């Protein structure tokens, strides 16, 4: 039986930490849907179309990975895609408490299990927020994001 998983996030922008989790999850499942959140409550630096295009560019070498946007409940998106697993990356213990509550709610609402992958230690400090801050002030983000993402961020200074 083929297993589909969903790896959700805002990916504003996608970082090497995100890619670490995506690549490792793709190796574990038959199909992985990277779900880019459309969140009207947030003001992203990159619009959803830019984020989708960047995600598609950086996962092009992963044949079992697809990219899609979603809004609303993640469990509804999972049901639409036939996903039975949600994959979430954890950078630090501080991420766990909030993610655990979401995992338990998703299990209750949609009968979907959550698998936590710890981010590789080399990326444990990395967040999209920090990358955006460095990029906003003209700092070099080449060690934190793929080249296509760094180039796109340079346009948003």
Topology, element by element:
Layout: E1 4-9, H1 16-26, E2 31-37, H2 48-58, E3 65-70, H3 74-81, E4 85-90, H4 93-110, E5 113-118, H5 128-136, H6 147-154
Parallel strand pairs: 1-2, 1-4, 2-3, 4-5
Task: Describe what you observe in this structure.
By secondary structure, the protein is of the alpha/beta class. The chain has a single domain (4-154), classed as HUPs (Rossmann fold). The chain is 41% helix and 20% strand. It contains 6 helices and 5 strands. It has helices spanning 16-26, 48-58, 74-81, 93-110, 128-136, 147-154; strands at residues 4-9, 31-37, 65-70, 85-90, 113-118. Strands 3-2-1-4-5 form a 5-stranded parallel β-sheet, sandwiched between helices. α3 (74-81) crosses α4. The longest helix has 18 residues, at 93-110. It is globular. The model has no long low-confidence stretch (mean pLDDT 94).
CATH architecture, please?
3-Layer(aba) Sandwich
Task: Kindly provide the radius of gyration, computed on alpha-carbon positions and rounded to a whole number of angstroms.
Answer: 15 Å
Strand content: 15-25%
User: How large is the count of helical segments?
Assistant: 6
CATH class: Alpha Beta
Poorly predicted ranges: none
Shape: globular
CATH topology: Rossmann fold
Helix share bin? 40-55%
N-end to C-end Cα span:
47 Å
**Class per helix and strand makeup:** alpha/beta
CATH superfamily: HUPs
Order of helices and strands: EHEHEHEHEHH
Looking across the biggest beta sheet, what order are the strands in?
A: 3-2-1-4-5
């Amino acid at each position: 039986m083929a297993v589909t998983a969903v790896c959700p996030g805002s990916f504003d922008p996608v970082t090497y930490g995100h890619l670490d989790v995506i690549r490792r999850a793709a190796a574990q499942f038959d199909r992985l849907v990277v779900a880019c959140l459309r969140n009207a409550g947030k003001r992203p630096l990159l619009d959803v179309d830019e984020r989708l295009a960047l995600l598609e560019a950086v996962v092009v070498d992963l044949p079992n990975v697809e990219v899609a946007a979603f809004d609303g409940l993640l469990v509804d998106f999972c049901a639409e895609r036939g996903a039975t697993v949600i994959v979430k990356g954890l950078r630090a213990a501080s991420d766990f408490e909030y993610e655990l509550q979401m995992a338990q709610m998703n299990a209750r609402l949609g009968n979907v299990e959550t698998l936590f992958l710890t981010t590789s230690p080399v990326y444990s400090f990395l967040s999209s927020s920090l990358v955006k801050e460095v990029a906003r002030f003209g700092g070099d983000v080449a060690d934190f994001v793929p080249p296509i993402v760094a180039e796109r961020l340079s346009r948003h200074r």
